[in-house]
Structure formats: structure tokens, C-alpha cells
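Sample intake sheet
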Amino acid sequence: MPIEILRQYSVFLPNKPGILSKFLKIFHDNNVNIAGISSEISDDSGVVRIVLEGGDKLSSLITSAGHTTIETAILSVQLPDKPGQLQIISEILGQAGINMSTIYGTAIPGGKTRLLLTVNNIEKAKAVLDSSPLANDL
């Protein structure tokens, strides 16, 4: 079960056609892979949460393009795509007193699942998942 600590960048963008494409071009132009993305939209604006691979400090790409960003650590957990995986992860973390505040991810049927988790203690969460006997069931 590969577990990494990545960086999530939360960026406020206007809710207008073409804005997301322009924002994503920053990463395309700099050969930065996007590990995950989610958004929450209200009437005229939204928050895009984007998880990037390729280093701890990519916020300068975002800020140099004129965007304000909030950077947080996030766990990337890769699992087999089969029933019960998220329940096992949440049980391991819950038993250790670790709270998950944000979760998103995707799966390819018959393949792998990648979960992206923000937690209240990222180092402890990684250590607990790395050493848990329940993780052998994943």
C-alpha cells in the first residue's frame, strides 16, 4: 500500500468559462502532474483543491501566475480497487484517534484506487497506516 505525503493547494477562482483551463495550463506548461483535483462552486466563484506531484513547494508556480493559495499536506494512499478498502483505512485511523477532514479519490475498476486524505496529524497517520496489521488486508 504506497502512502505518500503530497501537497494540496486550495485556490479561489472565478466561476467563468475558460478559467479552469487557464489555471491548469500552469501545470501543463511546467510538466507538473496533477494527482487529484476537486472543486466547490458557489454563484460567481469557487475553491479548487489541487494535489500536485513533483516536490513540496510548487506554490510559487501558482502565486507567480497571480493566484493566492493555501498549502496543506495531504496523504495519498494507493489501494486495490475492491470493496471495503476505505472502511479499513477509516477504521485504522479512527482507532488511532486521527480525524479525516477531507477525502477524495478515484478508482479504475479492476485496478487501483487512489485516496487523498487530509487528517489532523499527517505524520502519525502515515506511521499508523504503514505499521497497521489491518493494512495487510488491503
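Comment: The longest helix spans residues 19-29. Helices lie at 19-29, 59-64, 85-95, 122-131.
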